[in-house]
Amino acid sequence: MAMASLASNLSFLASSLKLVDSVGSRSSMHNGVQTVAMTAGKQQRSRAGGPMKVVMMAKREQELVDIRKMSQEEINETVIDLKGELFLLRTKKATRQEYKSSEFRRMRKQIARMLTVRREREIEQGITMRESRKLDRKWKKSIVPRPPPSYAATLAEQAKK
Ligand SMILES: *[C@@H]1O[C@H](CO)[C@@H](O)[C@H](O)[C@H]1NC(C)=O
């Protein structure tokens, strides 16, 4: 397999999940993942509503806000994809291919945030930790294995050639 194209696909995924954009604070959807443009470094918290005020939420808060807009199904699917990407990243590391080490932390954090929101919703429904683990095991069994998005893109690319 062409390592260069695999690497470029991974960096595409990285940028599509990235939270930093050159322009202000816009948001958009990629693959069901809402990305938000933020100015890095600004951790200023601010309540929405002040006229003419540029609201700059902490990155973590903004991400949580965006994840909360997602449906349960979208969250579950995104968790599957992100775990797949993490697996791919680990594979690259193990086989000494090019990879971006900062992606590990970012993806793990993103997965953790998704799971946090999922658990929050369960708590609202009065689902105990014990029941939650049981539901999670059941859900995991129901997952049909699939290639992570960046790898699927690589395969599609190669099929064209
Ligand atoms: C999402 O995953 C949880 C497992 O934590 C499961 O209980 C729930 O039914 C799943 N929801 C959907 C819509 O797949």
Automatic annotation (TrEMBL):
Keyword terms: Ribonucleoprotein, Ribosomal protein, Signal
Matches recorded under InterPro entries: Ribosomal_protein_uL29, Ribosomal_uL29, Ribosomal_uL29_sf
Pfam families: Ribosomal_L29
SUPFAM superfamilies (UniProt xref): Ribosomal protein L29 (L29p)
Transmembrane annotation, as ranges: none
CDD domains documented for this protein: Ribosomal_L29_HIP (cd00427)
Chain positions covered by the region annotation Disordered: 133-161
Domain of life: Eukaryota
Keyword Plastid: no
Residues spanning the signal sequence: 1-22
Keyword Nucleotidyltransferase: no
Similarity comment: Belongs to the universal ribosomal protein uL29 family.
The protein's name in its UniProt record: Large ribosomal subunit protein uL29c
Origin species: Sphagnum troendelagicum
